[in-house]
Amino acid sequence: MGKVAVGATVVCSAAACAVAVLLLRRRMRRWASAKAVLKELEEQCAAPIPKLRQIADAMTVEMHAGLASEGGSKLKMLISYVDNLPTGDEKGLFYALDLGGTNFRVLRVQLGGKERRVVKQEYEEVSIPQNLMVGSSGELFDFIAAELAKFVASEGEDFHLPEGRQRELGFTFSFPVKQTSIASGTLIKWTKGFSVDGTVGEDVVAELTKAMERQGLDMKVTALVNDTIGTLAGGRYDDSDVIAAVILGTGTNAAYVERAHAIPKWHGLLPKSGEMVINMEWGNFKSSHLPMTEYDQALDLESLNPGEQIYEKLISGMYLGEILRRVLLRMAEEASLFGDTVPPKLRVPFKLRTPVMSAMHHDASPDLKIVGTKLKEVFGIPTSLKTRKMVVEICDIITKRGARLAAAGIYGILKKLGRDTIANDCVAKRTVIAMDGGLYEHYNIFSDCVRSTLREMLGEEASASVVIKLSNDGSGIGAALLAASHSQYHEVEES
After folding, report:
1. Residue 490 CB: number of other CB atoms within 10 A?
2. Does 492 score more than 50 pLDDT?
3. For 7-60, how does the pLDDT look when each residue is reduced to its tens digit (9 = 90+)?
4. pLDDT tens per residue across span 67-110
5. Which is the most buried residue in 42, 145, 342, 362, by most CB within 10 A?
């Protein structure tokens, strides 16, 4: 090889090395930028125990304020008119309709009293088309009534309705409602991504009844309840120590059993049993102590209800995946996490759902294959192991913040009821929280963190008497049980 050729080879090799060094430095700068975003997220989402205690204290203060005066708190603290929870004596065939998010359930249950309890039950789950979540109230309720009519038509011989009696329904309506009786209430506002015209301020039972009549369905709604109240009723039916219920699913809410003397006279109602179930509507809780990030603020600003449901937007299944998408988008824009161009699908709001986030977070494979597969399916992007590990870290930060905030809310309820400390005689009593919702049931890292955080807040002694008990489909069976306890035929049976 001649000197010229050798010299050219050396020059080319040097140039190639220089390019490689530049590329390496560029990748290092990008990765450092991504790590800086991750560190900032971790700091902003931090929820140490002292902060959680401040949040719990703020929750308790808002509970007192909401009970003291109408409109006195971000927490609605709605009177449910449920002052007699199921006892186990309930008998007969009853139906339930559970409308709580992107799906609704219809259920029928044959009750056999204390000895036979739930003899038989059946249910079906129906997905709500996206266009009906933002359409007219008539279209939404007609769709629901049509599906309910189909379900009633499939009733088998194992279910027995006494001759001459009308079928009765417990309606779980998991949106803010101002109750006017056990079987009537006006909608305050839609949440969970719903924005339906023509229903706010209207009696939702009347809306459903008209839709059932249009379907030729002869059925009476005898109980209108929130999903948390249904879960509380179902939980109490199985366990007499249940004092509260929490929903952690698409949305979030809590209800609890309040002592009669704690309900001010302005409500104009005195519970006959000495207690009343309160629907907190805790998704609307807001406090300066909540650890908010720029992603949360942008999500709230761009939502259908800016400034509302702040707590829900931090902890519920509707939003966790979207927060993750927003973090990944920033990393793609500022640190080229997924290459030189930002994947177009990464810019689509709510493209990344929380069940996908859960699947990636729980990936225990050495090469995080599930993470890679899900990112490819959702956004069409290939990823390195290093990138996949970072995605899991982001999942962990967002999820555990939500779980710890949920635990702080539960602690706030216990504090309101005087069951947060061993120094109080009430703590010696077994205290059960009935829990429902797909987020808590299926996202194991989330639910484990809720329980461990609550134990950490309560301390070893007090936490020994507090139990979180999964009440699967509790809101559905609870609505049927409340329909039974408020049946229009009680007087006939007693006579």
Report:
1. 12
2. no
3. 555 555 655 565 555 555 666 677 888 899 999 999 999 999 999 999 999 999
4. 988 888 999 898 888 887 888 888 889 999 988 778 899 999 99
5. 145
User: Smallest Cα–Cα separation from 260: which of 251, 252, 269?
Assistant: 269
Q: What is the pLDDT of residue 64?
A: 94
Convert the pLDDT of each residue in 391-406 to its tens digit: 999 999 999 999 999 9
What is the DSSP pairing of strand 184-187 with strand 177-181?
A: antiparallel
| Given the residues 80, 174, 287, 485, the one annotated as active site | 174
**Mean pLDDT (whole number) for 257-280:** 75
- 105 classed as catalytic: yes
Contact of 481 with 170, CB cutoff 8 Å? yes
Q: Which residues contact 38 (CB under 8 A, 6 or more apart)?
A: 331, 390, 393, 394, 397
What is the Cα–Cα distance from 253 to 315, expressed in whole angstroms? 11
Distance CA 416, CA 66 (A): 12
Rounded Cα distance, 192 and 298, in Å: 17
Alpha helices in 340-465 (DSSP H): 354-361, 369-379, 385-416, 438-442, 444-458, 460-463
pLDDT of residue 171: 94
CA distances from residue 479 to 98, 226, 321, 482, 485 in whole angstroms, order as listed: 8, 9, 30, 5, 10
Domains observed in the chain = 80-238+474-490 (3.30.420.40)
Q: For 198, left (φ over 0), alpha (ψ -120 to 50), or beta? A: left
Name the active-site residue from 227, 363, 420, 473: 227
**Tokens standing for residue 68:** 């003291």
Task: Give yes or no: 218 in active site.
Answer: no
Kindly state the DSSP code that residue 316 receives in the 8-state scheme.
Answer: S
Query: What tens digit of pLDDT does each residue of 155-186 get?
Result: 988 888 888 899 999 998 878 888 888 899 99
Residues 6+ apart with CB under 8 A from 169: 94, 95, 96, 97, 219, 220, 221, 222, 223, 483
pLDDT of residue 270: 57
Nearest one of 171, 114, 64 to 482, comparing CA atoms: 171
What are the tokens at 313?
Answer: 């937007």
Catalytic member of 73, 80, 98, 105: 105
Q: Is the separation of the CB atoms in 454 and 417 below 8 Å?
A: no
Pair of tokens at residue 161: 């309705």
